[in-house]
Structures are given as structure tokens and as C-alpha cells.
Amino acid sequence: MHISEDHCHGHEHEHTHAHEHEQGHTHEHAHEHAHPHGEAQAMSFEETVTLLAYMLDHNRHHADELHDIAHALEDAGKQEAADAVSAALHYFDHCNDALEDALKIAKGE
Q1: Could you tell me which residues come within 8 angstroms of residue 47 by beta carbon, excluding any fewer than 6 positions away?
Q2: CA 21, 26, 31, 36 torsion: positive or negative?
Q3: CB within 10 Å: which end of the chain, N or C, has fewer?
């Protein structure tokens, strides 16, 4: 599988933000997940790991952008909107952490 460059952003930057999150909460979700595979060809293991790594990196980049959006909303005096983005980012970070765990497990790390 080839990851198309057309899908990537034309810029890169790195920065790290440490966020403290309240850990006194639980996340419970119940849902069914089903989708037909039809005629689509299955990905190889290597393609799967490559795609998962790409998606995790892509999601981390979007998390950085959401963080910047939350600060821009705060600066604009839109604290309620900033809080909503920050709350979403909290869950986004949890999802990215789970994807990172999946990637490590898949790679045997």
C-alpha cells in the first residue's frame, strides 16, 4: 500500500505540549462495529502497520492544531468554545494513545 502524498499536509512542525488530565473518570462505550469488505483486497501486515503509523502521526498533527485552535479561541474571548475544543482534545488524545498502543503491540514492542 502506498500512502499518497496528496493526502498529507504541505508543512511540518514539531512541538510538545504536556497536559494534565483528571484521571477520576471512566469511559464506557457500547456499540457494534460491522462493515462489509466486499471486493476490496485485504492489506498485508506491512501495509496495515504502515497505514496505522501514518494515521497516528496524522492524528497527532491534528491534535496540535486543535490545541492551537483552543488557545486562539481563548485569546478571542470565546472561553466556552475553547473549553469545548479542549474537552474534545482530551478524548482525541486518549484515542491517539490507544492507536499508539495498538501500533506498538502490532510491531511486537
Answers
A1: 1
A2: positive
A3: C
* pLDDT one-digit tens code per residue, 70-102: 999 999 999 999 999 999 999 999 999 999 999
Give the domain ranges of the chain. 43-109
C-alpha cell belonging to residue 50: 504502515
Distance, in Å, from the CA atom of 105 to the CA atom of 69, rounded to the nearest integer, reads 32
d(CA 27, CA 98): 13
* Full 3-state SS string of the chain: CCCCHHHCCCCCCCCCCCCCCCCCCCCCCCCCCCCCCCCCCCCCHHHHHHHHHHHHHHHHHHHHHHHHHHHHHHHCCCHHHHHHHHHHHHHHHHHHHHHHHHHHHHHCC
Q: pTM to 2 decimals? A: 0.61
